[in-house]
Amino acid sequence: MDIIKSFPLLIVLTLFISSFILLLIKKAKAAKTISLLSLSFALLLSAIHMVFVLRGGSYYYSIGYFKSPFGIEFYITSIEGIMFLLFSFVSLMVIWYSAYSIDKDIKETHIPLYYLLINILIGSLLGVVFTNDIFNSYVFIEVGTLAACGIIVVKDKKENIKATLKYLFMSCLGSGLILMGIAFLYTMTGQLNMSYIHQSIINVQEDYKRTILITLSLFTVGLGVKSAMFPMHNWLPDAHSSAPAPSSAILSSLVVKAYAILLIKVLYRIFGLDIINQFPVLRIILILGSAGMIMGSVMAIFQKEIKRVIAYSTVAQMGYIFMGVGMGTELGISIAYFHIIGHAITKAALFLTVGFMIEHTGNKKIKDFHGIGKRLPLTLSLFTAGALSMVGIPLLPGFASKWNFALASIHKGELTLIGVILISSLLNAVYYLPIAINGFFGEEQESEKEIIKGIFLKELLPVVILSLCMVYLGAASEGIIELINMGLI
């Protein structure tokens, strides 16, 4: 069964190679089919691989002739296994939905290019998740950044070009800081493999106190920019709100999460808790995460366009993840990973339902969606389910996250964080619930297009599946957190 150990590498290669095939494709339908087949293959392998990891435990997988520390290797625990499954599942659902909608957002001639970029992006993100080599992470980051910019600018509108340039500039800044951090790590340890860096840095930490602090700062800011840590998030609202709906779903659900996962690996796998506790880095991440939870929601309240509300909501939800990371406890990190899973599924469903409403009405502003539930009842119901999860209603993953974050705060002795969680939840309700209530019970508004009344189950089936998974995730949260804990040991 050792062949299953190669599944993570196999799927990264499959997605990259299928991108080359997409380069030769001219027909939109063929491009959609190839992308769907490659991501379906990824989901199948990730499910088999998850069972393998649960039975056999963590493992290292060397790539190529040279073994570590000279060669590249993947390190797979139950966490990487879960993320493999998550990234494959969410991307497949989003691309399935896009097969019905992307033609309305971008030119037909650009569709093969779009799916090429999607496959490269998902392959790169999985590479970031799997690799145990810090420079290899950087390569995957750079490839993924260019692909992410591509799926925003592909819409070819003025606002997309402007948002892409802003995202590219900020991403390049973040990448530069990460590269400088890698250079400092190599200077101190002579290693690029994360496990070997950790062993070496323990031995030299007394000689490089100041350099370690600088390196930690470079990685925190660099990856903070890329994962939209408050206040380094200013590229996100424009990029996520102006992109086609499937792009917004991928960017918000998966792209920022991959960089947050890498930050966790840098802090806890490379440096380790004993070293980072000597510096105020975790405290700063905790404060910025808490501030993001509040400020992201406050900024969402003042938005008029529905996609910008959801985009700012991502800033707030990423704050929860950074708060968990900054706690510096096993429970805090476990819940941060759980929130990554819950938010990825929920936010994909939210962006796709909103994209569907915009596509069918031609409207973008929140006030224009009053009464839309009378015409698009299933769409608004799916949106409401995602919104309730964001607010933290019991049985949904948002509640499980917030409940466990509260327990982690008590365990840490940081009772003020419970107040931050409560305020953030209240603010979530202030901007999400009026959209749902006015959508169901408000007076119907005029729209730029004639709204065709219907259920549209075929187009919305991927979102229905995402929503069902969201409910399952809330119900099975305890077991999933136990699986995550297996990867932390």
Automatic annotation (TrEMBL):
<feature type="transmembrane region" description="Helical">
    <location>
        <begin position="280"/>
        <end position="302"/>
    </location>
</feature>
<feature type="transmembrane region" description="Helical">
    <location>
        <begin position="378"/>
        <end position="397"/>
    </location>
</feature>
<feature type="transmembrane region" description="Helical">
    <location>
        <begin position="208"/>
        <end position="228"/>
    </location>
</feature>
<feature type="transmembrane region" description="Helical">
    <location>
        <begin position="167"/>
        <end position="188"/>
    </location>
</feature>
<feature type="transmembrane region" description="Helical">
    <location>
        <begin position="74"/>
        <end position="99"/>
    </location>
</feature>
<feature type="transmembrane region" description="Helical">
    <location>
        <begin position="417"/>
        <end position="440"/>
    </location>
</feature>
<keyword id="KW-0812">Transmembrane</keyword>
<keyword id="KW-1133">Transmembrane helix</keyword>
<dbReference type="GO" id="GO:0005886">
    <property type="term" value="C:plasma membrane"/>
</dbReference>
<feature type="domain" description="NADH:quinone oxidoreductase/Mrp antiporter transmembrane">
    <location>
        <begin position="132"/>
        <end position="427"/>
    </location>
</feature>
<keyword id="KW-0472">Membrane</keyword>
<protein>
    <submittedName>
        <fullName>Na(+)/H(+) antiporter subunit D</fullName>
    </submittedName>
</protein>
<comment type="similarity">
    <text>Belongs to the CPA3 antiporters (TC 2.A.63) subunit D family.</text>
</comment>
<feature type="transmembrane region" description="Helical">
    <location>
        <begin position="111"/>
        <end position="131"/>
    </location>
</feature>
<feature type="transmembrane region" description="Helical">
    <location>
        <begin position="249"/>
        <end position="268"/>
    </location>
</feature>
<dbReference type="InterPro" id="IPR001750">
    <property type="entry name" value="ND/Mrp_TM"/>
</dbReference>
<feature type="transmembrane region" description="Helical">
    <location>
        <begin position="34"/>
        <end position="54"/>
    </location>
</feature>
<feature type="transmembrane region" description="Helical">
    <location>
        <begin position="460"/>
        <end position="481"/>
    </location>
</feature>
<dbReference type="InterPro" id="IPR050586">
    <property type="entry name" value="CPA3_Na-H_Antiporter_D"/>
</dbReference>
<feature type="transmembrane region" description="Helical">
    <location>
        <begin position="6"/>
        <end position="25"/>
    </location>
</feature>
<feature type="transmembrane region" description="Helical">
    <location>
        <begin position="309"/>
        <end position="329"/>
    </location>
</feature>
<feature type="transmembrane region" description="Helical">
    <location>
        <begin position="137"/>
        <end position="155"/>
    </location>
</feature>
<feature type="transmembrane region" description="Helical">
    <location>
        <begin position="335"/>
        <end position="358"/>
    </location>
</feature>
<keyword id="KW-1003">Cell membrane</keyword>
<dbReference type="Pfam" id="PF00361">
    <property type="entry name" value="Proton_antipo_M"/>
</dbReference>
